[in-house]
Specification:
The complex is a heterodimer of chains A (70) and B (208).
Chain A lengths: L3 H5 L8 H14 L5 H34 L1
Helix pairs in contact in A: 2-3
Chain B lengths: L2 E4 L6 E5 L1 H10 L3 H5 L3 H21 L26 H5 L8 H10 L26 H6 L6 H8 L1 H26 L2 H21 L3
Antiparallel strand pairs in B: 1-2
Helix pairs in contact in B: 1-8, 3-8
The chains are: A mainly alpha (70), B mainly alpha (208).
């Protein structure tokens, strides 16, 4: 099994997603509530959902890379 | 025209004042529409999140001392055969902070050099066939600017990252504009439910 594609993937670039996830979660939640407490709670749930979705896509893409590079 | 919405959690009323003016202000500067409505906490949240995202994208799309390409080169407006900048239509959702790009594009089209060291100026057009009819002025005005290839080469992946950040900031502000215009989405849904229920009641109470 060739691990080169994963090794070549610039994993550090993923950190650039973090501020975007925070901003998207907060703004999205803020358009659905008026008070700060429900906004923060909703933003946390949205953030977890986005990160989970990204993780699933990440695993699928890595699996496909391994499959293609075999 | 003073409108109000109802907070479904606390049943408090939310002052929307003039929704159209609030929406325009929310587009002009993120959070300004909410500030006008007296919704200060959300105004601060929108301003910090959206302006922070947009400015960080501009920072990623700027050159440093080594790569002198100018500031915020990921936000520009260009519409010609070789480069149609569709991203700008999303970026301009942030309002005033993205408008210098329109000024720079307008100046270039009229043969004037970009201001502020090329801040948000369109890149120098490149075409194997040379400038199209009527584009000579823009080519001369942008002669000192980097080409789009130069920007990609100098900024590497940060050109795309900066574009994504600024684009998402602009698109997210559309949500904030809607919030300034009509209040939180849950409030709207609840209000429609209440309207439907009241209509049903009225229908039942009609004399036969």
């Amino acid at each position: 099994m060739n691990h080169l594609p994963l090794a070549a993937f610039p994993v550090n670039l993923l950190w650039y997603a973090l501020p975007l996830v925070v901003a998207v979660s907060l703004v999205y939640a803020a358009t659905r509530h008026e008070d700060m407490a429900p906004i923060l709670a909703h933003a946390f749930r949205v953030g977890v959902w986005i990160v989970g979705f990204m993780a699933v896509v990440f695993v699928i893409v890595v699996a496909m890379l391994w499959w293609v590079s075999d | 025209m003073n409108k109000v919405a109802v907070n479904p959690q606390s049943q408090d009323t939310i002052p929307l004042k003039d929704p159209v003016l609030a929406a325009f202000l929310a587009w002009l500067v993120p959070g300004l529409g909410h500030l006008y409505q007296g919704r200060t906490a959300k105004a601060v949240l929108f301003f910090v999140c959206l302006m922070g995202t947009f400015l960080y994208g501009c920072y990623l799309g700027s050159g440093d001392a080594e790569h002198k390409v100018g500031c915020a080169r990921v936000v520009y407006f260009q519409w010609d055969d070789d480069d149609i900048r569709f991203s700008y239509f999303g970026q301009v959702g942030i309002g005033l902070p993205a408008l210098p790009a329109l000024v720079q594009a307008f100046r270039a089209r009229h043969g004037k050099e970009p201001l502020f060291g090329g801040l948000m100026a369109p890149p120098r057009p490149v075409s194997a066939t040379g400038p199209a009819h009527g584009e000579d002025l823009a080519w001369k005005a942008l002669a000192d600017q980097p080409t789009l290839d130069d920007l990609h080469y100098q900024l590497r992946g940060y050109f795309e990252l900066g574009t994504v950040y600024t684009l998402i900031a602009g698109l997210l502000n559309v949500l904030a504009i809607y919030d300034a215009w009509g209040g939180p989405v849950f409030t709207q849904a609840k209000r429609e439910d209440e309207d439907q229920q009241s209509r049903k009641k009225e229908g039942k109470e009609k004399p036969r």
